[in-house]
């Protein structure tokens, strides 16, 4: 009897929590499809569906351009992190060379460094490189990731040494070994690093706000944030919610498809970070 | 093969750290030449009322956010660790806000918190309660942001704690039951101590993430009302990128990094010695 009541209570808590997390998103998406007057108030379902909010967003800010910028930057950063970090991860796990331990120490140091220390000088660096309002400012500082190197190093260590030795005997170069033999055997690590890098780059907003001023170079989170803060939305809640929905949807769709990988990847980064 | 990393480290990490140290000893607005002022920036920090205000605000945020987050994550994780149907669905639902951009979450909650038309006040009024000025009252705005930040991040900590709970062997509980220990005593004498390493990482992670509070007040309140939601990061941002005080902003960055480091060290020391 007590057990059954307890069980019921458990489900009640879980269902309440699930509703707390999901309802606001549902309200947001449906809100973008309502006429403006209906958004306030408790009624969830629109009386008539309208795309007016989206039309307004597209006509007021170059949101298509921002979407393109975000896609481009996130894709290039992810590709670069996968490539360059796995090369270094391979060297650290599979090659012996002078200074390897020092480099490993530097990696740990980089990971623990609070970003507040490098934020201002990084901005000055971008000014001196004349990279303000360019893709370089958004991409180059993120091209290598210490965290990704550590994940790759950990993962590559588990691959049997015989495989690598016999490939060397067959005359494979180190890069060939990495991409032909190690990559196909390290899919979980590649997926983890890929998802984390893409999502973090897509969602990052502090750095773009600092190095991008020109509207045509802005990424989605920055443009949407400034749209919500500034006067361009003219206090139309529907427009602001529509802009936020456009920013959220690509990640939500990816999350619905690759849900298991998302949760595993982010839990890994939580424990190691 | 380590060349890409080394180049990146030298340009993007090593140089900025050294340059940042140089900046702390100068007054500089990016345009005119740097002006050596010795340790003046540091003494300015300690007599700067807005610095203390932002420090107090940040600790106020952490004081609400961390207990709320660890507590609710622990409750949800313990329940999810029972024999529960549809566990996958609940996990996925709790985790959704974690993957979504903080900008989206902030915009969404700004509407939920709206005094006149927000969902939360509509709910309060429908059960006969008074409206709350969530974001316009200096006393409530920061707690409101702390609640929102918990809503956004708690799913991650549920997953971390759940994975920790699953590593506790069932035999330990069975033995305790045989010895006559009740569920509640088992929770405090077995679950919490055995979860200690993960609990510690969860608290440290919440702390580090909490100290980087920026976009939430930036979008929601702009640091107001009456600077009551001015976080340390927002203050650094304002000094650096609104007033172009590069030297002072770099100094604030170092001071904040030192504070984060000290708090994490204290947590590590206090929480670990607490149970072992």
What's a concise summary of this model?
Chain A has 273 residues and is mostly helical. Helix content of chain A is 76%, strand content 0%. Chain A has 2 domains: 2-50, no CATH class; 63-218 and 257-270, MetI-like fold (Orthogonal Bundle).
How would you describe this protein?
- The complex is a heterodimer of chains A (273) and B (276).
- By secondary structure, chain A is mainly α.
- Chain A has 2 domains: 2-50, no CATH class; 63-218 and 257-270, MetI-like fold.
- Helix content of chain A is 76%, strand content 0%.
- The longest helix of chain A has 32 residues, at 63-94.
- Chain B has a single domain (50-101, 134-275), classed as MetI-like fold, CATH 1.10.3720.
- The model of chain B has no long low-confidence stretch (mean pLDDT 90).
- Chain B has 12 helices and 2 strands.
- Chain B has helices spanning 3-24, 40-46, 49-80, 87-99, 102-112, 119-126, 141-165, 170-178, 183-211, 215-220, 232-242, 246-275, and strands spanning 26-27, 35-36.
- The longest helix of chain B has 32 residues, at 49-80.
- The two termini of chain B are 43 Å apart.
- Chain B is globular.
- Chain B is 74% helix and 1% strand.
- By secondary structure, chain B is mainly alpha-helical.
- In chain B, a hairpin with a 7-residue loop joins strand 1 (26-27) and strand 2 (35-36).
- In chain B, strands 1-2 form a two-stranded antiparallel ribbon.
- Chains A and B meet through helix 1, helix 4, helix 5, helix 6 and helix 11 of A and helix 1, helix 3, helix 4, helix 5 and helix 6 of B.
Offer a few descriptive terms.
heterodimer, A: 273 residues, mainly alpha, MetI-like fold, 2 domains, B: 276 residues, 2 strands
- Order of helices and strands of chain A, N to C? HHHHHHHHHHHHHHH
Uncertain ranges of chain A: none
Q: Quick one: biggest sheet of chain A? A: none
Major pleated sheet of chain B? 2 strands, antiparallel
β-sheet strand percentage of chain B = under 5%
Average pLDDT of chain A works out at 89
Counted by DSSP, the helix tally of chain B is 12
Give the name of the CATH architecture of the largest domain in chain A.
Answer: Orthogonal Bundle
Separation, N- and C-terminal Cα atoms of chain B = 43 Å
Helix content range of the residues of chain A, please? over 70%
CATH fold-level name of chain B: MetI-like fold
Largest interface: A-B, 84 and 87 residues
Counting structural domains of chain B, the number is 1
Please count the beta strands of chain B (DSSP E, at least 2 residues each). 2
The helix content of chain B is over 70%
């Amino acid at each position: 009897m007590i057990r059954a009541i307890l069980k019921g209570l458990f489900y009640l808590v879980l269902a309440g929590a699930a509703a707390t997390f999901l309802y606001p998103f549902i309200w947001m998406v449906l809100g973008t499809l309502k006429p403006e007057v209906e958004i306030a108030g408790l009624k969830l379902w629109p009386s008539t569906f309208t795309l007016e909010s989206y039309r307004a967003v597209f006509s007021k800010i170059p949101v298509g351009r921002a979407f393109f910028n975000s896609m481009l930057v996130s894709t290039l950063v992810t590709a670069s992190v996968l490539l360059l970090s796995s090369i270094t991860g391979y060297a650290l796990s599979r090659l012996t060379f002078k200074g390897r331990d020092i480099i490993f120490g530097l990696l740990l140091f980089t990971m623990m460094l609070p970003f507040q220390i490098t934020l201002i000088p990084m901005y000055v660096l971008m000014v001196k490189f004349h990279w303000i309002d360019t893709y370089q400012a958004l991409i180059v500082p993120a091209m290598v990731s210490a965290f990704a190197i550590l994940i790759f190093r950990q993962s590559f260590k588990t691959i049997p040494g015989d495989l690598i030795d016999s490939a060397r005997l067959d005359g494979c170069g180190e890069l060939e070994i990495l991409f032909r033999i190690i990559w196909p055997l390290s899919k979980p690590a590649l997926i983890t690093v890929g998802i984390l890098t893409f999502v973090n780059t897509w969602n990052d907003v502090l750095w773009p706000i600092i190095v991008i001023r020109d509207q045509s170079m802005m990424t989605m989170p920055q443009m949407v944030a400034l749209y919500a803060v500034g006067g361009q939305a003219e206090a139309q809640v529907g427009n602001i919610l529509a802009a936020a929905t456009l920013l959220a949807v690509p990640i939500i769709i990816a999350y619905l498809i690759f849900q298991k990988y998302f949760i595993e990847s982010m839990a890994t980064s939580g424990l190691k970070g | 093969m380590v060349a890409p990393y080394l180049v990146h480290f030298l340009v993007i990490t090593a140089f900025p750290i050294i340059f940042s140290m140089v900046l702390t000893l100068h007054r500089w607005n990016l345009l005119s030449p740097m002006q050596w002022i010795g340790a003046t920036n540091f003494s300015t920090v300690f007599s700067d009322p807005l610095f203390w205000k932002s420090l107090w605000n940040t600790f106020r945020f952490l004081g609400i956010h961390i207990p709320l987050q660890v507590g609710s994550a622990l409750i949800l994780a313990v329940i999810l660790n029972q024999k529960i149907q549809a566990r996958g669905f609940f996990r996925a639902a709790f985790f959704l806000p974690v993957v979504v951009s903080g900008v989206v979450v902030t915009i969404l909650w700004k509407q939920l918190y709206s005094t006149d038309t927000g969902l939360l006040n509509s709910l309060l009024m429908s059960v006969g309660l008074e409206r709350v000025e969530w974001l316009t009252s200096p006393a409530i705005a920061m707690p409101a942001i702390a609640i929102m930040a918990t809503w956004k991040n708690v799913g991650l900590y549920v997953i971390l704690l759940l994975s920790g709970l699953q590593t506790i062997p069932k035999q330990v509980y069975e033995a305790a039951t045989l010895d006559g220990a009740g569920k509640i005593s088992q929770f405090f004498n077995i679950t919490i101590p055995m979860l200690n390493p993960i609990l510690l990482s969860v608290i440290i992670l919440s702390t580090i993430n909490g100290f980087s509070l920026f976009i939430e007040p930036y979008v929601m309140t702009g640091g107001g009302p009456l600077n009551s939601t001015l976080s340390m990061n927002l203050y650094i941002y304002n000094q650096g990128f609104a007033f172009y005080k590069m030297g002072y902003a770099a100094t604030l960055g170092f001071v904040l990094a030192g504070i984060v480091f000290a708090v994490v060290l204290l947590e590590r020391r206090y929480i670990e010695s607490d149970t072992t």
